[in-house]
Specification:
It is a single chain. A hairpin with a 6-residue loop joins strand 3 and strand 4 (38-39). With 65 residues, the protein is of the alpha+beta class. It has one domain. It has helices at 48-52, 58-64, and strands spanning 5-9, 16-20, 30-31, 38-39. Strands 1-2 form a two-stranded antiparallel ribbon. The longest helix is centred in the C-terminal third of the chain and has 7 residues, at 58-64.
Length: 65
């Protein structure tokens, strides 16, 4: 089953925010609502959801299913 929401956890301050993922693209930047840090994907990941989210982005989920 595909998840359309993912909880992003900021590696800097630990703030968690449930976000809706884009359906047709990978999100490269994310502004933390807790500390204002701009999150970018870790090396090897396509987006911030794959790096910091509770579920990977939709394109990756579709590849895995």
């Amino acid at each position: 089953m595909t998840e359309h929401y993912s909880t992003i956890t900021c590696p800097r301050c630990g703030y968690k925010s449930r976000e809706e993922m884009p359906t047709d693209a990978c999100q490269f930047f994310y502004d933390c609502k807790g500390c204002g840090a701009v999150l970018k994907p870790l090396a090897g990941d396509c987006c911030v959801f794959c790096s910091y989210g509770s579920a990977p982005c939709l394109p990756i989920q579709e590849k895995e299913s």
